[in-house]
Fold this sequence. Notes:
By secondary structure, the chain is mainly beta. The protein is elongated. The chain is 6% helix and 23% strand. The strands form three sheets. It has an eight-stranded mixed sheet, with no helix packed on it. A four-stranded parallel sheet has the order 9-11-13-15, with no helix packed on it. It has a three-stranded parallel sheet with strand order 3-5-7, with no helix packed on it. Keywords: Leucine-rich repeat, Repeat, Signal. It is found in: Cell envelope.
Amino acid sequence: MKPCVVSILSFSLFFLSHFTTSLSERCNPNDKKALLEIKKGLGNPYDLITWDPKTDCCTDWAEVTLSYINNIRNLSGPIPPTIAKLSKLKFLRISQTSISGPVPKFLSKLKNITYINLSYNNLVSTIPPSLSQLPLLEFLRLDRNKLIGSISKSLSKLAPKLTYLYLGHNQLTGVVPTSFAGWSFDTIDLSRNMLEGDISFLFGKDKTTYEMLLDHNKFEFDFSKLTFGKKL
């Protein structure tokens, strides 16, 4: 019997995790315990009523979907630290809720994660440098929160696979690290912050960025030292 893949979509909270197999129940007991602690940490929302300790999370919890997103705003408080116990977690989305508190530093423990989306919440903190410790991260979305402070230089050490970075619609200040010049994003969103400085290093003939959102900041541009290919 193969390990089950549990896909849980609820109040825009989406977990994708691979669980190990047991003979009596396919759901790994440690993963099941962690999920139940997450449910408790979120205030035992009705939308997770099927997360019953007496049932198999690989079969009876397989998919929970909310059709009416407006009902999810009642979720509040910080993101439960129990999420860090899901060591094989690959996909995490907690979006369009009233979740508050900081962007958790414990996310750096999720070494298998490739996708993080914490957009459209009420998160208030700086961006934790510990996110640079995620070696497989491809997609990071922290936009539409109330994040403050500067963009840490350590973020430039994020996985080379990171191609989607959304930090727009926050309250970030300071300059964009010049080490970002080494990245070629598919999408980078820095819009509607209070960032400043010359960011011409994000441009050039070797850049392959498909979408770049930079509006509503205090940026400067000096293209005099850049090359964009042959002149017409």
